[in-house]
Write a structure and sequence with these properties.
- This protein has helices at residues 31-45, 77-93, 109-117, 155-171, 197-202, 206-213, 218-225, 254-262, 270-274; strands at residues 8-10, 48-54, 63-70, 178-182, 185-189, 195-196, 230-233, 236-239.
- The protein is of the alpha+beta class.
- The chain starts with 7 loop residues before the first strand and ends in a 22-residue tail after the last helix.
- The chain has a three-stranded antiparallel beta sheet, covered by helices on one side.
- It contains nine helices and eight strands.
- Keywords: Cytoplasm, Metal-binding, Methyltransferase, S-adenosyl-L-methionine, Transferase, tRNA processing, Zinc, Zinc-finger.
């Protein structure tokens, strides 16, 4: 609808209409096939020759729809835009069964049938065009999408949250201390308590929660991003004990083994710096650097 020269490619996945979830109308078709037909119908209403193709991708939803050429000359663009407006309104009211069947469409016969089925009707005053109103309340996505996976948050802010949450877990009523027997000596290392995400959030200040709320996944995403320090399982936050981590598999592909080796000792060990008991692993076994002199 943005311009006559526009072309499009769409890979339909989730079943949504213009204003909410798509409602099935034909029980003889699968839900996926019916939805593909609906998306194709939108293309026909918008005046496209709609082509269908099946992508070579590992997915059950791999049928794509492509609109490369128009079914009408540029001079009829305003007319088609009026028809698009009416089509959107018909989907909004869900009154397709009672709509008039007056169709101002000069496309191929099968397009006429599709539009008639949708209850397409031209507004008599012809005032709603692309130059006035497309869809009240519709907000298109920004040209530049904001990264909202907590990766763009200031490093100081992330470090502060990580330290606060870790201290909260360590100061909570401790679980049974994890023990590591080395050379006959019992060496205890405090793993702290596990708390639910809600309990952790309740201990953070409002300003911190406000910042996290604007990110996708919020607190949970931030904690999962800090894989070295935390483990988030079933909605509960634990301090990660690296003694329990499985050693790298010898059957790993060579590329993954090489990348893992290249990352060894390239970052400082959080536990060596911040944990009251230090790191649970000896320096030679820890994948992180115990001090700047070990950094690679």
């Amino acid at each position: 609808r943005s311009s006559y020269s526009c072309c499009y490619f769409v890979l339909p996945c989730c079943f949504f209409d213009f204003h909410g979830k798509y409602s099935r109308r034909q029980s003889k078709k699968t839900q996926y096939r019916e939805y593909l037909d609906f998306v194709a119908q939108v293309g026909f209403v918008c005046g496209f020759h709609v082509e269908e193709d099946c992508l070579r991708i590992p997915s059950t939803k791999r049928v794509s729809l492509i609109g490369k050429s128009r079914t009408y000359p540029p001079a009829e663009h305003a007319l088609i835009d009026q028809q698009i407006t009416q089509f959107i309104n018909s989907r909004r009211t869900c009154a397709m069964a009672t709509c008039d069947r007056r169709v101002g469409f000069k496309h191929k016969d099968h397009c006429d049938a599709l539009c008639e089925e949708a209850g397409l009707e031209l507004p008599e005053d012809g005032t709603e065009t692309a130059d006035t109103i497309w869809m009240p309340g519709f907000q298109p996505r920004e040209k530049v999408e904001q990264i909202r996976n907590c990766a763009s948050l200031p490093r100081d802010f992330v470090d502060e949250v990580v330290l606060n949450v870790a201290n909260l877990l360590l100061s909570a009523a401790p679980q049974k201390s994890c023990s590591d027997v080395q050379g006959g000596n019992m060496n205890t290392w405090n793993q702290g308590e596990s708390l639910s995400l809600r309990e952790v959030a309740e201990h953070l200040n409002k300003e911190t929660l406000k910042k996290l709320k604007s990110e996708y996944g919020g607190l949970q995403t931030l904690l999962k991003n800090n894989h070295q320090v935390f483990e988030v399982l079933n909605g509960r936050v634990h301090i990660r004990d690296w003694r329990k981590e499985k050693p790298p598999s010898k059957t790993k592909p060579e590329v993954k083994r090489r990348l893992s080796a290249e990352a060894f000792k390239t970052r400082l060990c959080w536990f060596f710096i911040h944990h009251p008991d230090g790191c649970s692993l000896p320096s030679e076994a820890c994948p992180y650097a115990h001090g700047t002199e070990e950094l690679r």
